[in-house]
Design brief:
Length: 76
Amino acid sequence: MNNKNCVHECLAATEFGQVVICKECGRVNLLLQNMSLHFSVEAFIGVANTLNEASGKIMATAQKATRPPPLKIVKH
Ligand SMILES: [Zn+2]
């Protein structure tokens, strides 16, 4: 799978991982710690959209959980 003519360009790098694209063959590499996943551009965008959708739902749920409880009516 390794192409000797690959010319890698880093698209993103965080503490969680790195995304590199090859300017020659167009392959996208997702590097996560000791794991490396290879995608076509179309597949990578599809996976990225899937992850975005999932993380969006998690964050929406988390926001609900951290919302302060409603005010209670106190009777005197
Ligand atoms: Zn390449």
